[in-house]
Amino acid sequence: MDRIWIGVALLLPFIIGLVKLARAGSRLSEMEAFADEFGTKLGSYIKNRGEDRESYVWLVHRSNKMQGQLGSDGVFVMYRPPGANVQYRNYQIVVNVLPELRRTFEDKLVSGGSLPRDYAAMLQDMMVRHLGTLSDRRELLARSIKNPFIWLREGVRTIIALPVSILGWLGVVSEDTVGRITGGKIFRVVSGIASFVGFVGAVMGIVLGWNEFAPLVVVWWRKFF
User: Fold this and answer.
1) Domain residue spans of the chain
2) How many CB atoms lie within 10 A of CB 168?
3) Looking at residue 200, what is its pLDDT?
4) CB count, 10 Å around CB of 61?
5) Distances in Å between the alpha carbon of 127 and those of 21, 57, 175, 209?
6) How many of the other CB atoms lie within 10 Å of CB of 66?
7) Conformational region of residue 82, where left means phi above 0, alpha means psi within -120 to 50, and beta covers everything else
8) Is there a contact between 152 and 11 (Cβ–Cβ < 8 Å)?
9) Cα distance between residue 38 and residue 24, in whole Å
10) Which residues contact 107 (CB under 8 A, 6 or more apart)?
């Protein structure tokens, strides 16, 4: 019976990790679909040189969501607008350049020049770069799903992070704080050690049985600590 419970305890993190990876794949599919749709609408607006008002309204309506999804792909660390004497830090491309593109399409003095093409290329390059990022994530996720040890690692991380996650759900700490804690180097190291120790301990517990394994744990603890 002890071996059965140890086996269940060993299997649980694997299952949790696999479910976590599957959910990450589902979220990634949603992000890819949204990025494709945004890129299609953007392409239509550019192709029609600002005459496709329906696409523009849709793009503005979804610009905050797209900006948030892009992360670093959608931000210039430093940016100086054409003809301006001011330089911006952490310049958000979608929410700032999209209105500028509309303005240049509508301004007869600049609509025939290079400025609309420059803004259009900036936005389209950004989307291509982001789709490349998502593709890289897809490849990494595909490899992770084939690796049971990554299931274990992700399952253990989820279990260890549960107290902090609960505080986030209750609003005691912010989601950003939860993300910083669970994404930090110290947390990754601790969860990695816990995964290794837990896996080895569970396997030995199954092989030896709890009655034989528990005294060994006491001996090792006294020896090393």
Assistant:
1) 29-146, 147-225
2) 19
3) 52
4) 9
5) 25, 18, 27, 56
6) 23
7) beta
8) no
9) 21
10) none
